Amino acid sequence: SQTIHQWPATLVQPVGSPLSLECTVEGTSNPNLYWYRQAAGRGLQLLFYSVGIGQISSEVPQNLSASRPQDRQFILSSKKLLLSDSGFYLCACHGTLHTEAFFGQGTRLTVV
Amino acid sequence: KQEVTQIPAALSVPEGENLVLNCSFTDSAIYNLQWFRQDPGKGLTSLLLIQSSQREQTSGRLNASLDKSSGRSTLYIAASQPGDSATYLCAVRLPSDSWGKFQFGAGTQVVVTP
Known about the structure:
- The complex is a heterodimer.
- Helix content of chain A is 0%, strand content 57%.
- By secondary structure, chain A is an all-beta fold.
- In chain A, the strands form two sheets. In chain A, strands 2, 4, 5, 6, 9, 10 and 11 form a seven-stranded mixed β-sheet that branches.
- Chain A is globular and about 40 Å long.
- The model of chain A has no long low-confidence stretch (mean pLDDT 91).
- The A-B interface holds A 4, 6, 32, 34, 42-44, 46, 49, 51, 57, 59, 88, 90, 92, 94, 96-106, 108 and B 31-32, 34, 36, 41-46, 49, 51, 89, 91, 93, 95, 98-102, 104-107.
C-alpha cells in the first residue's frame, strides 16, 4: 500500500512569512495527489489536486499555491502567510478512481 | 452539488456496545464511498472502501453498508472498545469529475467509555 510522508508536523510562522509544506509518496507511481485543509471543528476543504507532473488544479481562490516537480512530490506554498491560513493541512493520494485514498499525518500550521 | 451529512455529530457509548454511524449523501451518482478514522491531531486512516456496485464491506469488527438509491451508508463497529474513540468521517468520490475528488462529511466524534 501507499505511504505518504508530510513534513513538518507542526509549524508556527509569523504573518507575512513564506510557507513551504512538502508531501512525498511511496509505493505507487503516477498517483493523483491532493492538498486539503481542515479548520478546527470543520470538514476537509480541498485546496489543490494534481493528476501528473506540473499539472495543478485549484479548487478555491486563496493565498496558497501548489507545485508538483516530481511524480511523487507535492508542495504547498505561500509567498506571504495570512492569519486565516492557519489550519491542519493534509496531503492525500490515490492511484485509480476505484482504489483507496490514503492520507499523510498532516501539518499543523499556526500563523501568528 | 453533492452534500454529505453525518449525524450525529458526537456520540458517547459504554464499552462493549455496538456503534452505528450514519452517512447520507444527496446525489446517488458516486464512484465509491470510503470511511476514515481520525485521531486528535493526526491524519486520516482508511477503514473501508465500498464501490458503488457493492452493498457492504467487512473488516474485522467493522462493517459498512451502502444503499446508493437512498443515499446512505452505515458504519457498524461491533463490541466497541475505548481504543475506538476517534472521529469517523465518510467521503464519497464524485464520478462527474475525472480527477476523483472527494466530498467529505463533517464527521462523527465517538467516545467509548470504559
